Amino acid sequence: MSDTPVAPSVPPTAPAAAGSPEAAFYAPTERTVPTRIRERAAYDHETVHAILDAAYVCHLGFVRDGRPVVLPTLYARVGQRLYVHGSTGSRPLRMAGAEDPGLPVCLTVTHVDGLVLARSAFHHSINYRSVVVQGIAQPVTDPAEKAAALDALVDHAVPGRSADSRPANPKEAAATAVLRLDLTEVSAKTRSGGPNDEPEDVELPYWTGVVPVRHGYGSPVPADDLAPSVALPGYLAHL
């Protein structure tokens, strides 16, 4: 991107009173205020939650043996908390259980909404929506919370599906791990609109504009062994 870097500026971080308009915002910190293009950052719950709720896969970053590691995995938001799915054999899940108070992580979610084509290669960009969450991930060990988290993970992908499938049995639950990450240190960042060409490039004979990128669903394809008597559920027909 071609924008000029600017120094970070951290707004006051005093907690807002419950019920006040400010209570619907995540307090910015030195780690959540971007060093470039601060006007694209957002901290309100509505923006952050909408971006999180519209995706299924996050990238979870942590340090393992002194080296940075980033893993893609499924997640779901429940109120002011994220649940991250994994295997009990996964290294980050084992690390989270072994460390006190937990595993320091950085979780990111990104949507690409458009390819921004400028007249100059330098000003090409993308339209996007993203969220970065930093904090301490902890393993979910309470059986009731874990069961609720697993239902939330299923319903986040397909709303209503958890009630229309067999829940995990004890063996399956034991093989499945869930991390809990509270939404405390959070920021969103977005870009929209067209290209930002230099004035002297406006007359150049190159196509310029935005190519939209859209996510969609195809028609559900039944499994080969699905009984003909099992109808397509309404929650799938409405996707």
Description:
- The protein is an alpha+beta fold.
- The protein has a single domain, classed as Pnp Oxidase, Chain A (Roll), CATH 2.30.110.
- 18% of the residues lie in helices and 32% in strands.
Q: Roughly what is the average pLDDT, rounded to an integer? A: 86
Question: Could you give the count of β-strands?
Answer: 9
Distance between the termini: 35 Å
Number of separate helices: 5
CATH class: Mainly Beta
Gyration radius (Cα, Å) is 21 Å
Largest sheet: 6 strands, antiparallel, barrel
Question: What name is given to the CATH topology?
Answer: Pnp Oxidase, Chain A
Helix content: 10-25%
Strand content: 25-35%
The outline comes out as globular
CATH homology-level superfamily = Electron Transport, Fmn-binding Protein, Chain A
Topology diagram in text:
Layout: E1 41-42, H1 45-53, E2 57-64, E3 67-78, E4 81-87, H2 91-98, E5 103-117, E6 125-139, H3 143-157, H4 170-175, E7 176-182, E8 185-191, E9 209-212, H5 234-237
Antiparallel strand pairs: 1-8, 2-3, 2-5, 3-4, 4-7, 5-6, 5-9, 6-7, 6-8
